[in-house]
Amino acid sequence: MRIRSALAAAAVLTLAAACGGGGGGGGGSSSAPDEPVKLNFLSLAWQKESVAANKQIVEEWNKANPNIQVTYVQGSWDNVNDQLVTQFAGGTAPDVIHNDSPALSGFASDGYLLDLSAKLPAELKNDIPQAAWDTVTFDGGQGEQGIYGVPFLQESQVIIANKKLLDAAKVRVPTADKPWTWDEFSEAAKKMTKDGTYGVAWPMKSPVNKILNLSLTYGGTFFQTAGGKTTVKVGPEEREVLQRIHDQLYKDKSADPAALGQGTADPLPAFYQGKFALLPAGVYLRQQVVEQAPEGFEWVTLPGPVGTSAQQGAVSQTLSIAQDSEHPDEALKFIAFFLNGANQAKLAKGDWLLPTSRTAAADPSMTTGENGWDVATASAKNLVVAPFLKVNGFDEWETKVAAPVLQEYLANKITIDEAATRLVEDGNKVLERYQR
Amino acid sequence: MRRVPQYVALAAYVVFLAFPLVWLLSTALKTPREMALADPTWIPREPTLANFADAFGEQDLVGAAVRSLVVALASSVITVLVSLPASYAMARYRSLLNRVAIGWVLVSQVFPFILIIIPLFMILRDLDLVNTLPGLVAVHVTFTLPFALWMLQGYVRAVPRELEEAAAVDGAGRLRSIVSVVAPLLTPGVVATLLFSFISSWNEFMFALVILQDPDVMTLPLTLVRFTGPEGVARLGPLAAASLMATIPSLIFFAIIQRRLKSGLMAGAVKG
Questions:
Q1: In this predicted structure, what is the pLDDT of residue A33?
Q2: Which fold has domain B61-271?
């Protein structure tokens, strides 16, 4: 016992000697009365321009508000929810939290996030359209709907096109006011398919969100709620986009099969080489094209195809306040500043995404034709809350059912009927567990 | 001539081991445009240091590396200090308690760490160790200790009891025979355990992620991940540059004790 005690003491001493100067100070948001309020802001910005914009806005705030000092803490998208689960449970979560709207639902119902609905400043509330607020409105666990974040960046699907191949095909060039219908898109892709060049590439390593968001152009929602119970549905509306992409791959043979198993950005080297003409992708991918495209490579941004409507499903990047924050009012003041129109324009530009703020969307930097900003920003009006956003169990349905089924269907291993049956039957078993 | 296949196999193994490092170096020196070429190049056509400038300009890599070094050194030293006497006891004393302890050490290895991360966080919070490097060291020691114990007790078992008995005949007490006879023979094992603990702590990400919240205390893995975005998208150039710099301390540490580690592995293999 004595040896053990001596060892324990030695360990503690060594530890203290080795690390004495390195410690921080626990949660760190409480302050003495005459000290400035300290807020921790967990940001997930990672692009160079976006990080710079975040830091600049925080610096401006700190300079203008000596009594409310914000510490900028950079996190990462891939691990943020693991990090937050632990910190929420331990009561040490950051005051202001950057995340995306699908993640908010669970945290809100567990009571970890502050309901902002009664606190939002009118200017901020009115500057952001209701469709964006819908993406952050959830049941707070007591059966009441609340607003658990401020939505500020959104993504829409556009088509990034090789201009030379587009011009050579002599097809009508779609505009924000008159986009291609899916039929026109398919025809254009067929025309561009010749001499070893494909019309389009569909990178479908993670197909679920892309298919679900695009399916809204035909009113496909994939989920229905009746009598308080949500089930999966795959009717004619949900099959439409799926079937059209499948046709491009196997009937028209206008889609590059090599891209099918790739991640969103993976086909870009082949795109620069002119191996295909059209790349449907999120608006953020323009950043990589600007950075990587070889000199002389001309490209344009086209609006996404429309079906019976131009609607696309959207999720938002959000700023929320932890329920345990000791300074929620100050945190909200900071959010209102951080997400004012001018700042949202900077953040959107840095991340190559779309601002939710109407003021930001009108900023000249968001409406310029350069790098397709005009087309990208115009597409924001078609964004509606993604249908899956409020489905309990969606994450499990996505990973265990939808992703493998859609991959098998797009790889032509099963028919659309088999895919539909599995999406519904296996999917409902998953959803049922979340609704008991 | 008979050795040619051996050399070919060894060369292939060296290439296999060196490939990630060489590719990392190549990527760190490339422009974004060159990284996106459909036919990747080994030697950058227009080598650039811009990725290093970005990595060091945007993140406090040096500060994070120093903190990682402090945590890794403290964790590995404490792990060895604690596991050395414990492993001796496990190897030399035969009792029911000993067998239970060995069983418990094995069981602890099959536990998914993620299951206990929240309770562990609560304990650290109650001890005021959240957001501190000592807190992270305590966790790293806790999780490295079982394997270190297992590793070291193998080395202790390899030391013949007869040596201690001979020392006893010459009048040495147990402590004396441990310090003068057993400990020197365990040096290779201690070095191997030290290296294992150091690398485990140096690379550890998950516990650091949840324990460290203040930018001023964050370690290197937490700093590297800032170059990655959602769904596996990353700023490859700065990430490669920063990752390359992050491998250097490990390489230096390994180079310094490589000779002793080699003999340690041999000693364990032959005598165990």
A1: 62
A2: MetI-like fold (1.10.3720)
Determine, for residues A206 and B231 on separate chains, whether the beta-carbon distance falls below 8 Å: yes
Mean pLDDT value of segment A278-301: 94
Q: What is the mean pLDDT of residues A367-386?
A: 93
Mark yes or no for CB contact A16/B134 under 8 Å. yes
For residues A287 and A351, membership in a common domain is answered with no
Residue A6 lies in a domain: no
Residue of A nearest to B134 (CA): A19
Residue ranges of E strands in A235-382: 276-282, 299-303, 312-314, 316-321, 354-355
Instruction: Provide, as residue numbers in chain B, all residues whose Cβ is less than 8 Å from the Cβ of A9.
Output: none
From chain A, pick out residues whose CB is under 8 angstroms from the CB of B67: 22
The domain in which residue A255 lies consists of 157-313+392-434
Residue A227 and residue A303 in one domain: yes
Query: Could you give the strand order of the β-sheet that contains A157-162, starting from the edge strand earlier in sequence?
Result: A198-200, A276-282, A157-162, A299-303
Question: Which of B233, B235, B239 to mutate: most A Cβ within 10 Å?
Answer: B233
Model confidence at A180: pLDDT above 90 = yes
Q: Is residue A108 part of a domain?
A: yes
User: How many beta carbons lie within 10 A of that of residue A303, not counting itself?
Assistant: 23
Residues A377 and A419 in one domain: no
- The DSSP code sequence of B254-268 is HHHHHHHHHHHHHHH
Does the CB of A207 have a partner CB in chain B at under 8 Å? no
- Judgement on whether residues A103 and A209 belong to the same structural domain of the protein: no
Tell me which long-range contacts A361-364 makes (C-beta under 8 A, separation of at least 24).
none
DSSP at A139: E
Indicate the DSSP class of residue A128.
Answer: S
Count of structural domains within chain A:
2
Is A87 touching B (CB cutoff 8 A)? yes
Highest mean pLDDT (candidates A16-25, A311-320, A420-429):
A420-429
Quote the pLDDT of residue A178.
95
pLDDT tens profile A229-239: 999 999 999 99
| Predicted model pTM | 0.84
In this structure, are A185 and A275 located in the same domain? yes
Q: Assign residue A113 the CATH number of its domain.
A: 3.40.190.10
Interface contact B82-A7, CB threshold 8 A:
yes
Q: How confident is the model at residue B260 (pLDDT cuts 50, 70, 90)?
A: low
Q: Does a structural domain hold residue A302?
A: yes
In a domain, A17, yes or no: no
Residue A103 token pair: 């993640």
Selected for mutation to probe chain A from B214, B217, B220, B239 (highest A CB count within 10 Å) is B214
CB pair distance less than 8 Å for B36 and A273: no
Q: What is the pLDDT of residue A24?
A: 35
Nearest to A19 among B33, B133, B230 (CB): B133
> For residue A60, how far is the Cα from the chain centroid?
27
For B133, the closest of A14, A22, A292 (CB atoms) is A22
Mean predicted confidence (pLDDT) in A346-363: 95
Helix or strand run (H / E) with residue A230: strand A229-232
How many contacts (CB atoms, under 8 Å) link A and B? 153
Residue A224 and residue A124 share a domain: no
Q: What angle do CA A14, A18, A21 make, to 5 degrees?
A: 135
The letter for the amino acid at A40 is N
Write out residues 283-302 of A within 8 Å (CB-CB) of B: 288, 291-294
